[in-house]
Amino acid sequence: MFSKVWKELKQKKFSPIYLLYGNENFLINKTKDLIIQEAIQEEEVEFNLSIYDLEDTPVETVIEDCETIPFFGERKIVIAHHPLFLTSEKGKDKVEHNLKIFEQYIENPVPTTILVLIAPYEKLDERKKLTKALKKHARTLQATGLSEKEIKQWIREQVSENGNEMTNDGVELLYQYVGPNLTLLHNELEKLFLYCEQQIIDDEVVHLLVAKSLEDNIFALVDQVIKRNLDKALEIYYDLLKQNEEPIKILAVIASQLRFIYEVKTLLHKGYGEKQIASILKVHPYRVKLTIPKAKNFEEKRILAMVNYLADLDYKLKSGYGNKEKLIELFFFTFLTRDNEETIRS
Question: Which portions of this protein are annotated as coiled-coil regions (predicted)?
Answer without folding.
Answer: none
